[in-house]
Design a protein that fits this description.
By secondary structure, the protein is mainly α. It has 3 domains: 116 residues, Orthogonal Bundle (Fumarase C, Chain B, domain 1), CATH 1.10.275.10; 236 residues, Fumarase/aspartase (Central domain) (Fumarase C, Chain A, domain 2, Up-down Bundle), CATH 1.20.200; 54 residues, no CATH class. The protein is 63% helix and 4% strand. It is built from 18 helices and 4 strands. Strands 1-2 form a two-stranded antiparallel sheet. A two-stranded antiparallel sheet has the order 3-4. A hairpin with a 2-residue loop joins strand 1 and strand 2. It is elongated, with a radius of gyration of 29 Å. It starts with 18 loop residues before the first helix and ends with a helix.
Length: 444
Amino acid sequence: MAASLFDSAMFSRLFPTGEAGRLFTDSAEIRAMLLVEGALARVQGARGIIPAESAAAIDRAAMEVQIDGAALADATGENGVCVPGLVTAFREAMAAPEHAQYVHWGATSQDVIDTALMLRLRRALALIEADVRAMLGELAQLAETHADLPMPARTFGQHANVTSFGAVVAGWGWPLAGLLEELPGLRGDCLLVSLSGATGTASQLGPQAAALRADLAAALGLSDPGRDWHTDRAPVLKIADWLTRLAVALGKLGEDAVELAQTGIGELDPGGAGASSTLPQKRNPVAPSVLVALSRQAAGLAGILRGAAVQRHQRDGGAWFAEWMCLPQIVLGAAAAARIARRLSAAMAPRPEAMAAALDATGGLIHAEALSFALASFLPRPEAQAATKALCREAMESGASLADLVARDWPRIDAATLFDPSRQMGRAPEEARAFAGAAQALAG
């Protein structure tokens, strides 16, 4: 099995990351770091910190030079970071030492690595957002279409009372809508430029250091933090937390879909083939199962990432390296989950006959709560609950339907209404339609 399923050709359709997967390759990281070096030179040249002609040469070369990640392996292994080797290779590739001497002027490796990371995270968030918005459109349609389709609601894995499939879909979709509403603030607060020098003091960037950092932020379309954040990993943690909560929300959808598609329930067709190697009758819920797996991976890695945020002094190599190991997996897991969920939401379909059969499976016991409140019109509430429990016990022991027992003992109750699932959904249809309207607006 591949070390990372996201990099595996064999598993690429099971864990599809799309364009986001290309953001976490050597070539993408090198390209992003060169963009940072070019933009740094450009803003330094504009402020007269380095010669303008050298700034132009560096900026132009940053767009043109190609550097192979393998060529940086020895230097990275020796230095623990890739930037010293990158700067050396970049200067050599420029073949203009009079200009190349100004590459990386006053910056430190972490400035370049963190800023380049933010450029890639910005693109990853945009790709994931597009999939989530498209998915919300599909969920909105499902919720609207099936707002009035009754099905069993379940608590602790058991039938509780009646809901609608549209309301279940809304329960999957509302967390996604909330996550999308958080994105503008997340981008503004957390997609930050870094330019603080070796220990966060900007000691070699000169008296214009703060203005230079603001210039670099503007040049790259990132936010200026107004400070050093080398060991304050809150911006990374907040982005990772958003991605983890996305994976968890989609994992909840996956868990429900696996349960509703299982033998004996069959209330949901999750779409897809899902063939077994030996069992002809199987149609496994593959996509929902992948969502569950990705949510568990994200939750586990998020814990490691939080631990890595405790960094010693002005830079902590071990903690920083642990972040490198976890963060790409969290991003790619969320990207894969969003792509899978987008397809799943377009393919899944409820099975009304199976839902109706499930509602009838317990002989009307799913309406016990409604019965207890109906009896409260004739009895004090505690006595109504006790009477309902006694009738339920008799129904389970005798095999008689609860409706028949109610007709026998309580003819004053309108059993036709009480035991009609379409009349016992409460606000579920309204909740489904409210979600559908909100989701359609977010889907654009």
